[in-house]
Structure formats: structure tokens, C-alpha cells
Write a structure and sequence with these properties.
The chain is α+β, with helices and mostly antiparallel strands and about 160 residues long. It is about 40% helix and about 25% strand.
């Protein structure tokens, strides 16, 4: 059975990826939390940490925003090499070269509020995942868009409100 692993409030998990999502840099906490060695992580797709409890719509939103040149915040449940998991609130931003071309993505993750995860994010993600399993990505996206529309806020505003 998998267990949740934690890092402290004053620590940050940091990584960089190329524009295809392959890891090009990871700090010591990233390595420690993932359970992989730095050599096992470098050049691997960041999805090596993707937990099966994560709805695909969250990653679609993340990639859509990044490819549009915008930064984004998202709650993410990652899996470790050993099959355990940990939650993060990720801030991901594009990095540009001198000609303003996106050349990589930089992500800083911190420990999210436990009650926010338990009371809001886990139930929402469970619902979105169920919709994806039964109706595909569009069902999940439609539901999330409907929830946001009812609240009169954007995805970004929703994340910032938590």
C-alpha cells in the first residue's frame, strides 16, 4: 500500500525541463522526494512522476498555458519510484532566450495546505478522473469549465482562492 510522504513548509522542489517536458535539472529535494537518483531523472519525461490519481485535464490546462507563454499554478499529486506519493502546489513558467523563444520550463513546488488537498482538491480530482474514465477528456474539461463558470472565476483565480 502506498503512503504519503512529506517535505517541510520551508523547502522547495525545483526542476527545469526542455520544451518537450524532459527533465534537464532537478534540485536535491526533487531527487529525495522522487526516490530516483539524479541520473535516473535527467533526460526522462517529467511524467515519470505522474500519479494515476491525477486527472489528465489538469495537465492539459498546464501545457496549454505554458505553450501560450503563460505561467501557471496547479496542485499536483506525484508518485515516487517506490510507489508512494506526495502533493505539491506547482508554479511553472516558461523561460525565454534572447529572441523571446521559449527554451525551457522552470518549476518551483511547495508544500500545499493539507486541508485544501483533503477537502477540495482530492474530491475534485476524483470527480474529474471519474468523468475522464467514463466520458474522456472532454467530459472532465466540460465539468471543470462549468464549475468555474458557476463560481464566475477563471482556473487561475480558483487556484489562488485556495
Amino acid at each position: 500500500m502506498s503512503k504519503e510522504v512529506f517535505f517541510s513548509d520551508d523547502q522547495f522542489i525545483i526542476s527545469k525541463t526542455d520544451t518537450k517536458g524532459r527533465i534537464t535539472y532537478c534540485n536535491a529535494l526533487f531527487v529525495e522526494m522522487s526516490g530516483y537518483s539524479a541520473l535516473e531523472l535527467i533526460a526522462q519525461p517529467h511524467s515519470i512522476l505522474r500519479h494515476s490519481d491525477m486527472p489528465k485535464i489538469i495537465f492539459k490546462i498546464l501545457w496549454d498555458e505554458l505553450q501560450a507563454g503563460r505561467e501557471i499554478f496547479a496542485f499536483v499529486k506525484n508518485k515516487t519510484k517506490q510507489g508512494d506519493y506526495y502533493w505539491v502546489i506547482a508554479f511553472v513558467t516558461p523561460s525565454y532566450d534572447t529572441k523571446e523563444n521559449v527554451v525551457e520550463y522552470f518549476s518551483v513546488r511547495r508544500k500545499p495546505d493539507v486541508q485544501t488537498i483533503k477537502n477540495i482538491i482530492e474530491p475534485l480530482y476524483k470527480e474529474l478522473l471519474s468523468l475522464e474514465k467514463n466520458g474522456g477528456l472532454s467530459a472532465s474539461q466540460n465539468h471543470l469549465n462549468s464549475l468555474l463558470h458557476k463560481k464566475g472565476i477563471s482556473y487561475e483565480q480558483f487556484i489562488f482562492s485556495l
